[in-house]
């Protein structure tokens, strides 16, 4: 049986986070970012266990001031370069025996930055901590690069990704020489994805070069939310329109058409003249709740309303993410779910 990646909305054992410490990711905003993390921990800890990675010697407790349920938070001393555990952390899969395991892809800081020596060891250290089997993803002697934010799955065999991120052979190339067929075979062999839905590009300002979790997400086996920009003058308009057209022709693993729900984009956010990748699609689904980034924008209310309609049985929280997105990521990028053990 092929290792299988469960959907995000399946029952969680815990959520993993990395307490922020790299000031280069959030210049001049570290205190505000720590408070945003404390707010996330407060909400998550009320719904499930939180494993919080901290630098060795750090006995961090400041998150408790937010009202976090501290008996649901456990600190683990694992050194990291950055806090983007969605990409550097483990992908938890179900193995051939029905047990939880870790698919260990290589992390190279989005094929862009040089500081990843600590981050690339995080999956092994977490697998060791939890006494889980580790599956190194190696093809023809090569470690395969894949970040968690580059894919989204429905838990039934379908996976969404962008060509910009996984297939570009000129910019931030993850796996040089790998064509579409080889990438699809890898996704099927190691994650159980029998059906890949290819979108075109991601959004402006995303330094990952096209992560899908800022653009398009499954919310159940048959329903997809897609970031939508109505302003034809916005830099994201054409790319998001093309993605909408692709989804209109897309099919799920059983041949059926997915239901597509449009999720508005917030107005543009900038820092030092650079566009930031603000998107409501960077939400995180946890046990009985959903965390949705908000940006002090009129569309915050529209996005939260859409998400509440899509998740009637979960509490939908808006989390202020203007400071977080300065680091070129948001709530989903900073979290990683650990699914509950399968019986």
Summarize the structure.
This protein is an alpha/beta fold and 343 residues long. The protein contains eight helices and 20 strands.
At CATH level 3, the topology is L-arginine/glycine Amidinotransferase, Chain A
The percent range for helix content is 10-25%
Total strands: the figure is 20
Number of helices: 8
Structural class determined from secondary elements:
alpha/beta
Number of domains: 1
> Strand content of the residues, in percent?
15-25%
The CATH superfamily is L-arginine/glycine Amidinotransferase, Chain A
Spatial order of the strands forming the largest sheet: 3-2-1-20
Question: What is the element string, with H for helices and E for strands?
Answer: EHEEHEEHHEEEEEHHEEEHEEEEEHEE
Distance between the termini: 16 Å
Largest sheet: 4 strands, mixed
The radius of gyration is: 19 Å
Q: How does CATH name the architecture?
A: 5-stranded Propeller
Q: In CATH, what is the class?
A: Alpha Beta
Outline type: globular
> Mean of residue pLDDT?
96
Low-confidence stretches: none
Verbal overview:
This protein has 343 residues and is of the alpha/beta class. The protein has one domain: L-arginine/glycine Amidinotransferase, Chain A (5-stranded Propeller), CATH 3.75.10.10. 22% of the residues lie in helices and 25% in strands. It is built from eight helices and 20 strands. The chain has helices at 30-45, 85-88, 109-112, 122-130, 163-166, 180-191, 237-249, 299-310; strands at 12-18, 49-54, 73-77, 91-94, 100-104, 133-136, 138-139, 142-143, 152-153, 158-162, 195-199, 216-218, 223-228, 259-264, 270-271, 274-275, 284-286, 289-294, 315-320, 336-339. Helix 7 links the parallel strand 13 (223-228) and strand 14. The radius of gyration is 19 Å and the shape is globular.
């Amino acid at each position: 049986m092929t290792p299988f990646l469960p959907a995000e909305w399946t029952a969680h054992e815990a959520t993993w986070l990395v307490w922020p410490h790299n000031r280069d990711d959030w210049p001049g905003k570290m205190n505000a970012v720590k408070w945003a993390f404390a707010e996330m921990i407060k909400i998550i800890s009320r719904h499930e266990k939180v494993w919080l990675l901290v630098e060795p010697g750090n006995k961090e407790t400041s998150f408790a001031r937010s009202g976090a349920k501290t008996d649901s938070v456990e600190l683990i001393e694992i050194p990291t370069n950055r806090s983007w555990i969605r990409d550097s952390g483990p992908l938890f899969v179900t193995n051939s025996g029905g047990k939880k395991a870790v698919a260990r892809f290589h992390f190279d800081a989005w094929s862009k930055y040089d500081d990843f020596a600590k981050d690339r060891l995080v999956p092994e250290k977490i697998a060791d901590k939890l006494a889980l089997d580790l599956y190194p993803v190696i093809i023809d002697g090569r470690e395969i690069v894949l970040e968690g934010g580059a894919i989204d799955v429905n838990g039934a065999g379908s996976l969404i990704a962008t060509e910009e991120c996984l297939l570009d052979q000129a910019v931030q190339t993850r796996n040089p020489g790998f064509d579409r067929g080889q990438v699809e075979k890898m996704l099927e062999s190691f994650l159980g994805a029998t059906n890949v839905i290819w979108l075109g590009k991601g959004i402006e300002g995303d330094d990952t070069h096209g992560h899908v979790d800022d653009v398009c997400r499954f919310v159940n086996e048959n329903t997809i939310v897609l970031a939508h920009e109505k302003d034809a003058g916005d830099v994201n308009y054409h790319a998001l329109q093309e993605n909408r057209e692709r989804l209109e022709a897309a099919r799920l693993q059983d041949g059926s058409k997915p239901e597509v729900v449009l999720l508005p984009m917030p107005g543009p956010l900038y820092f030092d003249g650079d566009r930031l990748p603000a998107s409501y699609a960077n939400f995180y689904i946890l046990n009985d709740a959903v965390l949705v980034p908000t940006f002090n924008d009129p569309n915050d209310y529209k996005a939260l309303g859409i998400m509440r309609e899509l998740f009637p049985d979960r509490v939908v929280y808006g989390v202020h993410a203007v400071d977080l997105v300065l680091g070129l990521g948001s709530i989903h990028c900073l979290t990683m779910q650990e699914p509950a053990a399968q019986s």
